[in-house]
């Protein structure tokens, strides 16, 4: 395209080209090919035009490949029950069982920006990995990155890319369409129930652990209290004995 007089390298900023990474290889090549076949000499803002093509392609793709939800599949309402947002990740981050907690959860992740509008995807968490760079997440710094799966596309994301907002219908439908294109099994109601059961078990274990700590703390407190009481009693007895002995000596001196 750059060999023609109608497109210069600075016409399309690098971030716009990188936006194509949101699409699979076939779709990205289709968009670029369609863009190259346009009469670019009549287009003033070529960057905005390409962004518009990407947006229209995604909308058309979503409409054409909309998947009918089958019985037993997890609906968006079901999926939201195992969604993990940024605030939840911050609470879980320092837990020893962080990976089993987040694995299998659903997240809404920021994957790019088009025309100053952010683009999000619904992804399944496959686990986490350690990155080379430390970054601030909440009140602490970490190297942990979530391994996010969108169909057969797998990519690590820093956790500050995870959204606190709800997954939209469009994002859910895009995920369904991607799973269908990749011939992969979608989340089922049984999958959701299994993950919820794990959440409840985790909460129960934490409550049991907290109760044990409180019980141990009360036991130690009572033990210290008894020791102080014995110490005061012993001190009082010693003081009383000393006082009696001293009184006896004084009485002996007054004898004729």
From TrEMBL:
Record carries keyword Cell cycle: no
Biased composition (Basic and acidic residues): 203-212
Subcellular location: Nucleus
Origin superkingdom: Eukaryota
A GO cellular component entry from the record: Cdc73/Paf1 complex
This protein's record includes keyword Manganese: no
Gene Ontology MF: a single term: DNA binding
Annotated segments matching region Disordered: 202-256
UniProt xrefs under Gene3D superfamilies: Plus-3 domain (3.90.70.200)
Assigned keywords, A-Z: Nucleus, Transcription, Transcription regulation
Residue intervals of the Plus3 domain: 73-204
Low complexity composition bias: residue spans: 232-247
Biased composition, class Basic residues, residue ranges: 213-231
UniProt protein name: Plus3 domain-containing protein
Annotated organism of origin: Eutreptiella gymnastica
């Amino acid at each position: 395209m750059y060999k023609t007089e109608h497109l210069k390298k600075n016409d399309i900023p690098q971030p716009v080209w990188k936006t194509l990474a949101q699409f699979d290889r076939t779709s990205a090549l289709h968009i670029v090919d369609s863009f190259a076949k346009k009469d670019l000499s009549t287009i003033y803002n070529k960057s905005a035009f390409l962004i518009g093509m990407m947006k229209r392609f995604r909308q058309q793709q979503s409409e054409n490949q909309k998947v009918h939800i089958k019985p037993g599949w997890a609906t968006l309402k079901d999926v939201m029950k195992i969604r993990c947002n940024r605030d939840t990740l911050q609470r879980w981050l320092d837990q020893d069982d962080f990976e089993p907690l987040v694995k299998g959860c659903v997240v809404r992740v920021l994957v790019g920006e088009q025309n100053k509008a952010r683009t999000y995807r619904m992804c399944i968490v496959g686990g986490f990995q350690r990155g080379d760079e430390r970054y601030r997440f909440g009140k602490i710094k970490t190297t942990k990155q979530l391994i996010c799966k969108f169909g057969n596309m797998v990519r690590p994301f820093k956790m500050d890319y995870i959204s606190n907002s709800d997954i939209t219908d469009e994002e859910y439908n895009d995920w369904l369409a991607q799973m269908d294109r990749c011939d992969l099994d979608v989340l089922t109601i049984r999958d959701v129930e299994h993950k919820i059961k794990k959440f409840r078990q985790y909460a129960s274990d934490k409550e049991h652990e907290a109760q044990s700590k409180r019980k141990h703390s009360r036991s130690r407190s009572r033990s210290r209290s008894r020791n102080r009481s014995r110490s005061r009693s012993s001190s009082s007895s010693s003081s009383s004995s000393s006082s009696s002995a001293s009184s006896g000596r004084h009485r002996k001196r007054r004898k004729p």
